[in-house]
Amino acid sequence: MFDRLSALDASFLYMEDAATPMHVGGVAVFERPREGFGYEDFLALVGQRLSYLPRYRQRVLPVPGHLARPVWADDVDFDLNYHVRRSALPAPGTDRQLFDLVARLMSRPLDKERPLWEAYFVEGLAGDRVALVTKTHQSVVDGIGTIELGQLILDAQPQERVPFEDTWTPRHRPSRAQLVLDAVTEAVQRPGELVENVRAAAQDAAATAGKVAGTVGDLASALRTMVRPAPSGPLNVPVSGGRVFAVVRTRLEDYRRIRARHGGTVNDVVLTAVTGALREWLLSRGMELTADGTVRALVPLAVRDAELAEFSPAALIGNEVIAHLVDLPVGEPDPVLRLQHVGHAMAEHVASGRSVGARALLRVGGFAPATLHSLGARTAGSLSGRIFNLLVTNSPGPQRPLYAGSARMIEMFPVMPLVRNQALAIGVTSYAGGVYFGLNGDRKAVSDVDVLAGMIAESLAELGEVRAAW
User: Fold this and answer.
1) For 116-147, how does the pLDDT look when each residue is reduced to its tens digit (9 = 90+)?
2) Which domains, and CATH codes, for the chain?
3) How many CA atoms lie within 13 A of 430 on its CB side?
4) How far apart are CA 373 and CA 377, in angstroms?
5) What is the pTM of this model?
6) Which of 63, 143, 170, 205 has CA atoms 20 to 30 A from the CA of 394?
């Protein structure tokens, strides 16, 4: 019997449409070493590592009549060159050109007739740099059985190229009759599931998401705000198929200095910088903000199992990244008071005793920011968009350099997906002394995403300059 998609994984396939592709992305920029690092080097590196991730050679097969959820099956026609693609900017390529390319790539759904991932090796960047752009469907990454591709290829030390020979042999593809027989066998064992599978495939995507939302994890911390919808505004509009992407580069030391001066955590400072930027952005659009005006952010946070004495990789499974809803005080003009409001809202999560700090996450072997961002996107994708205005994920990364082959990574930016009626998603990652924001926006609703990105840097600078009044 073949491996069947979980209810949550299947829901991401049911919910997907042309305007809201359900994949998570990442952009990593590398220095090209003296000995060079080209497409063939990268292709060989990915090919060597795929044996650790069988899911990346498997495709989704639907069951006739929707008698059961789809299954994962080896792609008998797997073509590594199809998934690992070569691209180039007109030299000398600018960052703006790179991010325009990222926006176009992220707007395109993945091919469901093939394994659900793609990677682009982008050459031509000024300064002898190359970039890696990845796309992985949310149904693929669960954090334990399968991690994000960007995590797979990075090492703590430079690696020499090793000749790659693909000896993988796929298992046979199941026939339609076999898929039906397996589904009927499961239905006999669990008769209620047959009706649910047919209903889930036929119902509206939002209903499907609601049905599986309970599998995401403990949402007790969010229940009080779920009883009322998120504030209305320009961030909650029907999403088009186009995307815009912008980044912000900041230094981790600035966040630590603000935290030391005003209290709170680095994550509080990140959310406060986003809050200040959203305030200025809304005002620039002519919106009137009351003193108690808010924008509600869904902030997925890693937690540990309460029954485990020690935090371990086993505790960081998909249902241990929980949805925490935070009302960002965009109506508050004072940046320090904004930080206090955010810190108070986040303190409840910390007080639960289950929160996982940045240092604990970094001690977990085999865990990386790309995977946590993917888990955060899974959490957001399973919830009703009516209860939050935007997604903000923040994952601490290693503070030492990482390498793809012999090329040193110098920057990394998450690209979070948009869901129905959600025009903006923000991913944040710290790495090697920097804090990097990736802002993915709808091309129609948030065409000025680069302006918003600049406002995040200004908001952080404002926090660093203001001294507490007491």
Assistant:
1) 999 999 999 999 999 999 999 988 886 556 66
2) 213-400+413-465 (3.30.559.30)
3) 21
4) 6
5) 0.85
6) 205
